[in-house]
């Protein structure tokens, strides 16, 4: 089914701003002004940009390097693969800077008799929430280079790149971050308790910013089959890649 794009007028320059159903924050590609779609009001959070550092030729070199490295890949992968698509996409993220405090009570069962333990985990995060409802992206493996962020500047985005709008607002992103951090702390608790009885996480929010970051989505063909690869456009690091099985 084809998703029909809609338009609003940019309240800053008057140009048409295209968006798709479900998107709630849109950025004008003509002046870079960011708007909340439901209200038409200006977006009042910091909007930052991570720069892409690779052109098409340089990216093809990175792809070849990835295909040639690692003992789990077929030895002829780089030589016999064909790149089908190379799409540069600027993905929207919320960065939740907060101190997370999880208080817990649990049972330690590795001794007899078992004992009840309580305590807390306190950690500081720049937690990344992908601002899209349904997207296959390894957010937890992505170490966003925040030190390299600049104020959002549409002039620094390549003409062939695709910029995705946000489908998730600030409040939903904050709640998702809280849930995801609590899940992370549940994992850490396995070192201390075997069964969790009570758990509660609170966030001491320091800052939230909205961020667009570049990722290259690659499709390549090897021996008649299609595979996907995602590469960080800022660092050139592979974030996720399908590897053909080695046949003996």
Key traits:
248 residues; mainly beta; 8-stranded mixed beta sheet; 3 helices; two-stranded antiparallel ribbon
Secondary-structure map:
Blueprint: E1 6-9, E2 16-19, E3 25-27, E4 34-36, E5 46-49, H1 56-68, H2 77-80, E6 82-108, E7 115-130, E8 150-151, E9 162-163, H3 170-189, E10 195-222, E11 225-232, E12 238-241
Parallel strand pairs: 5-10, 6-9
Antiparallel strand pairs: 1-2, 3-4, 5-8, 6-7, 6-10, 10-11, 11-12
Share of residues in helices:
10-25%
Uncertain parts? none
What's the average pLDDT?
90
What is the rounded distance between the termini? 41 Å
What structural class is derived from the secondary structure elements? mainly beta
Radius of gyration: 22 Å
Query: How many extended strands?
Result: 12
Strand content: 35-45%
State the shape: flat
Q: What is the helix/strand order?
A: EEEEEHHEEEEHEEE
Total helical segments: 3
Main sheet: strands, sense, barrel: 8 strands, mixed
What does this structure look like?
The protein has 248 residues and is mainly beta. 15% of the residues lie in helices and 42% in strands. It has three helices and twelve strands. Strands 5, 6, 7, 8, 9, 10, 11 and 12 form an eight-stranded mixed sheet that branches. A hairpin with a 2-residue loop joins strand 10 (195-222) and strand 11 (225-232). It is flat and about 65 Å long. The two termini are 41 Å apart.
